[in-house]
């Protein structure tokens, strides 16, 4: 049966009343705009209108849409096999992908666990840390330390280390395990931390480190928890304190990995290597769901020499050949491109064109880092109203909370990026 690209009123009514979209209500649903096709940096609506995409489909489509090389990678792999279990079996796309991830990742990360989503990779990383600690004969150290304002995913382990009060998961506080939260870093990316902030961190570690196995955080950029860009020396201090107190450091690079902040991985801004690093989102260029948790020889050996003798995790679709094949081609396109120049150009333009909005009374702050532009509003944004305005302006931007932000594909042209900024300006100045 040929799939239809048109949408009848019945189709859209069914979608509105029966399909739960992310973070939406079925009793008071937000509009869902029907997309018929996508190419380059444009999404084509069913009625023929085109929208410039400012979101990279939640930060994944770094090369845009309908990319010939990525299409070909999927088609070529599809002719061989779409999927095969990863238990007791391996295949060329997975081997090549893991080789490349080890090659480009921060020093020491050489053991790769492939997962089928970002949240699952976070779960795997947390289980690695717990199993590592158990093997070391310290079963009482099963808690985690993290910082307020963070976001790590929607599964239970990941939710437990998201911001417990200001985050999206406070409704589940009675269900989730309790961990330890330091204050959100106070200094911005361009600044240096004060000694009093370091002293507060030292005290936090003294109070809680002996009950914990690892410190988990988003390096430099807190994403869905508030789009906050913090000082690199804060991250460096966390690394030092983890070493001092025998904690593992888990870096959640889901949003920041593969060039988004101007470095291939955000941890590089502080010149540090984590003990476990999670990547996903842009890994496949937005084509397939795929993620990975990388760790060191030391951590892997401790896990595998323990009571279980194995790492106790195994998603059904881990190592999916289609996902691995397109990830390989995606990383090849990225690494062989002038991605740093592109990201720097996006950063420069966003700073120039978004900065004037900072003087608008309804705007609290404007922040830009790499290919990320954030306008923090004084009040919560009405998503339905804002998206209607953006679509009328020919762009696709999806705010959350009091944040209107851009994470465009790296291939976006100056004129299209300018239209995205103009649409935000038009919305704010209505």
Give keywords.
2 domains; 35% helix; four-stranded mixed β-sheet; Aspartate Aminotransferase, domain 2; alpha/beta; single chain; seven-stranded mixed β-sheet; Aspartate Aminotransferase, domain 1; globular; 430 residues
CATH superfamily of the largest domain: Type I PLP-dependent aspartate aminotransferase-like (Major domain)
Order of strands across the biggest sheet?
4-12-11-10-7-5-6
CATH class call of the largest domain: Alpha Beta
CATH architecture of the largest domain: 3-Layer(aba) Sandwich
**SS field, number of helical segments:** 13
Question: How would you classify the helix and strand content by structural class?
Answer: alpha/beta
**Main β-sheet: number of strands, strand sense, barrel status?**
7 strands, mixed
**Uncertain regions: pLDDT < 50 for 5+ in a row?**
none
| Residues in helix, % | 25-40%
**Span from first to last CA?**
46 Å
Number of domains: 2
How many strands appear in the DSSP assignment? 16
- Provide the succession of SSEs: HEEEHHHEHEHEHEEEHEEEHHHEEHEEH
Strand content: 15-25%
Radius of gyration: 22 Å
Overall pLDDT level: 96
> What's the shape?
globular
Q: What is the CATH fold-level name of the largest domain?
A: Aspartate Aminotransferase, domain 2
